[in-house]
Design brief:
globular; alpha/beta; about 10% strand
């Protein structure tokens, strides 16, 4: 039986690391990239380039621009960096897009049902993004249960980076001999600059600090990674 997985793929560091980690584990991989009105269209272009470069045969771009009308965020609108536009009173980051992962994982699951995939893979990470309620392990488990009940279909939402630090995520890329690809060809920066990024935004800082930590403590971090993921 053909093993199939669907990857929620943005072309950033995390989702690309998930892709290179999944490639040897599945016979068939489908990438899904969501066009939700993000500020930088380069994300979609980078995702398309990377999926081709890594040999993915099926890559879908799904229009979810309605999210931009319903959920205002600094990732979809040009707000001032200090403006927290969340109105729930929970002091969430202004880069939080309410409902984004709920929508993306649900749509990916519907697609997985159609192609008879057994897994959804996403780069959600609780360790580095604990301020985001839809990046927590508890959220993923509850959503996974709801999707299985709602579709009467066995499907596992996998989050290989959930318990990894950013340095360990870099170690995973290195384990698969794709460190340079992910270092130079992915786009994580909130200001839309590929590779190392703008040098100013939170995404740049998280990525750069993790890389520096990995390069300075490569052996120890690689050993930690192997223990966590049983590599």
């Amino acid at each position: 039986m053909t093993k199939k997985a669907v990857i929620v793929f943005s072309g950033g560091q995390d989702s690309t690391t998930c892709l290179v980690h999944a490639l040897p584990l599945y016979d068939e991989i489908h990438c899904i990239t969501f066009d939700y009105g993000q500020r930088h269209r380069a994300e979609i272009e980078v995702a398309q380039q990377l999926s081709k470069q890594l040999g993915v045969k099926v890559h879908k771009i799904l229009d979810t621009s309605l999210l931009n009308e319903l959920a205002i965020s600094s990732l979809t609108r040009d707000n001032t960096p200090s403006l927290n536009i969340n109105s729930s009173g929970n002091n969430l980051p202004n880069t939080f897009v309410p409902g984004r992962n709920i929508l993306f994982l649900t749509l990916a699951s519907i697609y997985a049902y159609q192609v008879r995939a057994e897994a959804i893979i996403t780069g959600i990470c609780e360790i580095e993004c604990s301020d985001y309620p839809d990046c927590r392990d508890e959220f993923v488990k509850h959503l996974n249960d709801a999707i299985e009940f709602g579709m009467d279909y066995k499907l596992h939402i996998q989050t290989p980076l959930m318990r990894l630090s950013k340095a360990e995520t870099w170690a995973l890329a290195d384990h698969h001999q794709q460190l340079n690809l992910i270092r130079h060809e992915t786009l994580t920066c909130y200001n839309g600059i590929k590779g190392s990024g703008c040098g100013n935004c939170d995404a740049y800082n998280l990525r750069a600090n993790g890389l520096n930590e990995f390069l300075e403590n490569r052996t120890q971090i690689m050993n930690n990674l192997k223990t966590k993921l049983d590599l």
